[in-house]
Design goal:
By secondary structure, the chain is α+β, with helices and mostly antiparallel strands. 18% of the residues lie in helices and 29% in strands.
Length: 316
């Protein structure tokens, strides 16, 4: 089995399990229902909002004359608050003393989609109030007490900043360096790629892995600074990858090269050497659930460093 990078793929109508209408008429019924309920909500609350051709409504509550217009493929940092139109809080992330959360303004770049769609009518520094039908949000997906099926949303979004790829690399490097300093960690070597690597357990024998070798290893993967494991090998089922194989994650070729059997390595990996700009999910709390349902292909969040540990079992 190879530990390859899966394509960044989000099947927009199928991503939420059990939310695919059986027929086209079922989907049309959902659209009609959502639109009617959303219009009733706006009228009942005296909200004067602009209707988008895509089906959501918006108000621009903070404008910017100097900010750049957000365009396709921009990496966007936002602060947001997501509620249902019934007033239930789903998530708030409005503390601007923290770094904004990032996504790529492209097809499949973000869920709920309405925040992504509205990016195209916003500039850096602007705040929009969005009123979204469920079919542009979480559709018929539900999660515990947090998200209910068919919920229309009222969202506040500050489109705080557009980041270049180089700016994201610089940001992630600073995050890693701050983490190392704040936790008094020693022994990591920073490579020119931005990867930080450390050998944490000695190997045995004379065989050292090289290009095109198959390496068998146990692993554990977390977001940097978090305790929750987002992916790991099974106790009796280590993974195998060939060093340099097409499609390998870049950091794997680095971490598994020049190692011996029994050796343990620990790596802090910026996203451009890992899973890249995969689909962003708000709130973060539902990402693991969607991954477990095979609705998204990548467990790690985009544009954030990861913490990877591996123990080498075999080289062949």
């Amino acid at each position: 089995m190879k530990f390859n990078q899966l394509p960044v793929l989000l099947i927009l109508t199928a991503m939420f399990v059990a939310c695919i209408p059986d027929t086209e008429s079922d989907y049309e019924r959902i659209v009609e229902r959502d639109n009617r309920l959303l219009q009733d909500y706006l009228e009942r609350n005296g909200i004067n909002a602009i209707e988008s051709p895509l089906g959501f409504y918006y108000q621009k509550t903070q404008s910017s004359d100097t900010g750049n217009q957000i365009v396709n493929n921009d990496i966007v940092g936002v602060y947001y608050e997501i509620r249902t139109t019934n007033g239930q809080m789903i998530e708030t992330y409005m503390d601007e003393s923290k770094l904004p959360r990032l996504y790529k303004h492209t097809d499949g770049g973000l869920i709920p989609r309405v925040i992504n769609f509205a990016s195209g009518i916003a500039k850096e520094g602007e705040t929009l109030r969005l009123f979204s039908p469920s079919y542009l949000a979480y559709s018929e997906y539900s999660f515990e007490q947090l998200i209910s099926e068919g919920a229309n949303l009222a969202i506040t979004v500050k489109y705080a900043r557009v980041y270049s790829e180089s700016a994201v690399k610089t940001l992630e490097r600073q995050i890693i360096e701050d983490y190392i300093e704040d936790n008094g960690i020693e022994g990591f070597e920073m490579l020119s790629s931005g990867i930080f690597i450390k050998v944490t357990g000695a190997g045995e024998g004379e065989l050292v892995s090289k290009a095109n070798d198959n390496v068998v290893f146990d692993f554990e993967l977390k977001q940097l600074g978090e305790s929750t494991v987002i992916s790991k090998s099974n106790e009796n089922s280590p993974l195998t990858t060939r060093i340099g194989a097409q499609g390998n994650l870049k950091f794997l070729d680095v971490a598994l090269r020049d190692v011996k059997v029994g050796q343990e390595v620990e790596v802090f990996v910026p996203s451009h050497e890992g899973f890249g700009g995969s689909t962003q999910i708000f709130p973060f709390a539902i990402r693991r659930d969607l991954f477990s349902r095979n609705a998204i292909s990548i467990a790690a969040r985009p544009f954030e460093p990861i913490h990877f540990k591996a123990k080498i079992k075999e080289i062949k």
